[in-house]
Amino acid sequence: MRIWIAALVSAPLIALSQPVFAQPVPETAGETREAAIQSGEDWGSASTPFDQAGGAGRFDEQDPWEGFNRKIFGFNEFVDRYALKPAAKGYRWVTPEWLDNTVTRFFSNLGDIGDGLNYVFQWRWGEAGNSLGRFTINTTLGVAGLFDVASDVDLGNTDTSLDVTLGRWGVARGPYLVVPILGPSSVRDAATIYPSSYLWPVIYLEDDLARYSLAALYGVDLRADLLDLERNIIGDRYTFIRNAYLQRRLMQEGKDMAPALPDEDPELESDDGW
After folding, report:
1. What is the H or E stretch that residue 140 is in?
2. Would residue 266 count as lying in a domain?
3. Into how many domains does the chain fold?
4. What is the pLDDT along the chain (274 residues), one digit of tens a residue?
5. 157 in helix, strand or coil?
6. Which domain holds residue 83?
């Protein structure tokens, strides 16, 4: 039972996809712009492939459930606006920048374990050695990951997920899906949320207070790190976030940037040691 509860608490924090953003999403780019002006947040008036329904390689074709997804997206925006974002702003206000960066490095170090194991499952031994090597170095020389010593010896941070692992072995991605609270996902990605929680060391802490406190700290720290990045969102927020999520997944899988249709999942390129 404890594992179930811990997994449910930590799942939103390690899903990855993309965290939710603030402001209720309007239906059109023009309404989005108007809402931004009224709220005092200027997102700009330019347009990019990410905020165009037919841009970035026709990502809209992977979103046959857009009507349903937009409703869930609106709910997520509401929760973020009145709960997550205020908490993140408060956290940033009381936390010195050096301490904020230290907390981020600590959780990034824990994430290297899951990354390394997933690279092993993907049979990508070079990346697996990089991630597990980073964890070993930063846990020891970096004092439990508080300092990123591994980057100083050219072991850069790369991330992957169980979703990418399944794609590596030919499991179809399925349609784009917005998950309540968790945000952008796909049918395949959503199916990995609970199993992925077992790759996060925090859920194995026996002390409930410590486990839930670390999970909450991770979520707030992650949301705080996105406060500046969300100003890059222009046009229709739903479309921008969806397209950015799908393109990032394609890059992680090593696929061509042109997305597949929902019922297609072409083989990944095998230029990394297969």
Report:
1. helix 125-140
2. no
3. 1
4. 334 334 444 444 444 334 333 333 334 434 443 444 344 444 344 444 444 544 444 688 899 999 999 999 999 999 999 999 999 999 999 999 999 999 999 999 999 999 999 999 999 999 999 999 999 999 999 999 999 999 999 999 999 999 999 999 999 999 999 999 999 999 999 999 999 999 999 999 999 999 999 999 999 999 999 998 888 888 899 999 999 999 988 888 776 444 444 444 444 444 444 4
5. coil
6. 2-11+56-253
HEC per residue, 83-129: HHHHHHHHHHHHCCHHHHHHHHHHHHHHHHHHHHHHHHHCCCHHHHH
- Whether residue 20 is contained in a domain is answered as no
> φ, ψ for residue 72 (rounded to 5)?
-65, -40
Q: Look at residue 85 and tell me if it is in a domain.
A: yes
Return the number of other C-beta atoms located less than 10 Å from residue 83's C-beta: 12
CA gap 112, 116 in Å, rounded: 6
Structure-token match 């997305």, residue found = 259
* Domain-embedded: residue 187: yes
Q: Which of 56, 63, 66, 61 is nearest to 258 (CA)?
A: 56
The token duo for 177 is: 């899906």
Q: For the whole model, what pTM was predicted?
A: 0.73
